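Example record

Each entry pairs one chain with its bound ligand, zinc ion.
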Amino acid sequence: MDEHTLKAQLLGTMKPRPVTGAFQPNREELFQSLEGPDSIVRGFCQGCGMLFEITTEGKQIFQEDFSVRIPDNPGEHYVHFSRCLLCDTEYRDPEVRSIPR
Ligand SMILES: [Zn+2]
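Structure tokens for the complex follow.
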């Protein structure tokens, strides 16, 4: 299994969406409870508008692949990406951000 396939399995995939690069997260959706049993924080892709959940395993991958530190109790934070696996070949520019008030 190649790295891309492995990440897609761990981090989740959905149907491709149009890529504008200018999506903004919906704060109501960011505040919704996580659904996955292993999910710890939401991720949002500015490139295609994809909102997804990051698992404990996904968090470790992001922290190893990028110099991003994702808190154990993210609270009112999410991880913002400029691109994700749906709209690019890999996740790009992860950044922990506060959910806008
Ligand atoms: Zn994307």
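DSSP finds three helices and four strands in the chain.
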